[in-house]
Design brief:
This protein has 8 helices and 12 strands. It has 2 domains: about 160 residues, P-loop containing nucleotide triphosphate hydrolases (Rossmann fold, 3-Layer(aba) Sandwich); about 80 residues, no CATH class. By secondary structure, the chain is an alpha/beta fold. A 6-stranded mixed sheet has the order 6-9-10-3-11-12, sandwiched between helices. Helix content is about 35%, strand content about 25%. The mean pLDDT is about 90. α4 crosses α5 and α5 runs parallel beside α6. Bound molecules: adenosine-5'-triphosphate and magnesium ion (MG). Magnesium ion binds next to α1. The site of adenosine-5'-triphosphate has 11 residues, from β2 and α1.
Length: about 250
Amino acid sequence: MSLLELDGIMKHFGPVQVLLGVDLKVEAGEVVALVGDNGAGKSTLMKIITGIHKPDGGTIHFDGADISGHSPGEIRERGIEMIYQDLALARMQDVASNIFLGREPTKRLLGTPIRMLDRARIEQEAEAMIRKLGARVPSVRHPVGKLSGGQQQSVAIARALTFNPKLVIMDEPTAALAVREVEHVLDLIRELKRQKIAVILISHRLTDVFAVCDRVVALRQGRVVSDEPITQTSMNAVVAHIVGAA
Ligand SMILES: Nc1ncnc2c1ncn2[C@@H]1O[C@H](COP(=O)(O)OP(=O)(O)OP(=O)(O)O)[C@@H](O)[C@H]1O
Ligand SMILES: [Mg+2]
């Protein structure tokens, strides 16, 4: 069995049928691109995997278990992380705080039952995570809002890694980045692959897709219209699938 297996996923919002029976497999450590026109259903499909949306039909298996109908918390615990396009970082807080946002290590105030943030440990662990990832961030004390888009993306990836995921889903991580920053985010994706973490990369940028992905899946009007190893297709062929000219 594959790490992730979607079988016949259906979803409608009101009268709009968004997904019409989507099958998708991702192997452990594989980097899979999910491409498709605006409104094709990419983000909706990913939010179904993470438990944010409930599908109307179909099943989801992950790491040998049926996770259909599980809550977002349970799904995260099983090892799926999603980095959303808006990143959901706290801009006023520094890098270290963002990496541990909402579950900062605490320590007991000496001689009392009161627990307080263990700031030293937060910074140490944040630094270790940044180093392990090879991310370029000036300091873990730097406010996230003052980092570049690419550096903020690195912080979001570092945060995802603290949950020890087996699969990381990234929704358009390079859409708003300068050329050099794109390269850096692509390096981070390669690093995840080296660490045997599977990635689903949603992207409109086919050069990124062809630079880092093993396989490319095209979604069109709620259906998978192609699913090919990157070595056996071309950008022109993928574009043709996306626009329905294939
Ligand atoms: N929460 C929602 N309520 C109602 N309709 C929705 C909701 N989320 C998405 N849709 C609709 O579902 C369709 C697919 O949207 P989705 O965001 O999945 O597309 P996408 O492939 O991610 O597009 P893009 O490349 O523009 O991000 C669109 O028609 C969208 O308007
Ligand atoms: Mg989307």
